[in-house]
Amino acid sequence: MLAIPYPMLKVLGKTTSINVRKVLWTCAELGVSYEQEDWGAGFRATNTPEFLALNPNAMVPVIIDGPTTLWESNTICRYLAAKHGRTDLLPADTAARALVEQWMDWQAGELNNSWRYAFMALVRNSPNHTDATAIAASISNWHHHMGILERQLARTGQYVTGPQFTLADVVLGLSANRWSMTPMARPDYPGVAAYLERLAQRDNVGFALHCRNGVA
Fold this sequence. Notes:
The chain is an alpha+beta fold. The chain has 2 domains: 9-83, Glutaredoxin, CATH 3.40.30; 94-204, Glutathione S-transferase Yfyf (Class Pi), Chain A, domain 2 (Up-down Bundle), CATH 1.20.1050.10. Helix content is 53%, strand content 7%. It has 8 helices and 4 strands. The chain has helices spanning 18-30, 49-52, 73-83, 94-122, 132-156, 167-181, 190-201, 206-210, and strands at residues 9-12, 34-37, 62-65, 68-71. The termini are far apart.
């Protein structure tokens, strides 16, 4: 009996979302074709029954890959790399893979939480994020966490986990780009600056299309 092919991978989420851009950059690294639909603020609402059936958190991105529906951007990136056998991006070795996942989880938890208030105030101009003390505290915490990345890059001398580009660099490359683009005073972190240029010089187009594309 002939197998019935599943439809093309579908990515739900607006392209200005940093978490959606993680998935799109990963797809570029993999050379995977996809259909992308704009969902989120300014586009189709994510609090509808239709979308909540896909992600009860009402957040983007969501992917639909044949019978598989997934949310959480870093999980989606890991799924896609594993599905396509890209052990360069997500190593097969247990310890090496755990190191990549450690830095991905740090980005999603510690680093993301540090910048949230300042970014909403300084870039999104949110009327709910105008407290000067809270903005200053968030900026300070953001710089502290970027200092952790600066020191890690000094140890590896190349990419986040070592000499090879991995999924950790997709998520942290986007984070470093957001930090560099936000209108605020920043410490001099030459390692982070060199890291962004290193990412720009790679052959893959994902960085230019989905990271250094004028969107923080």
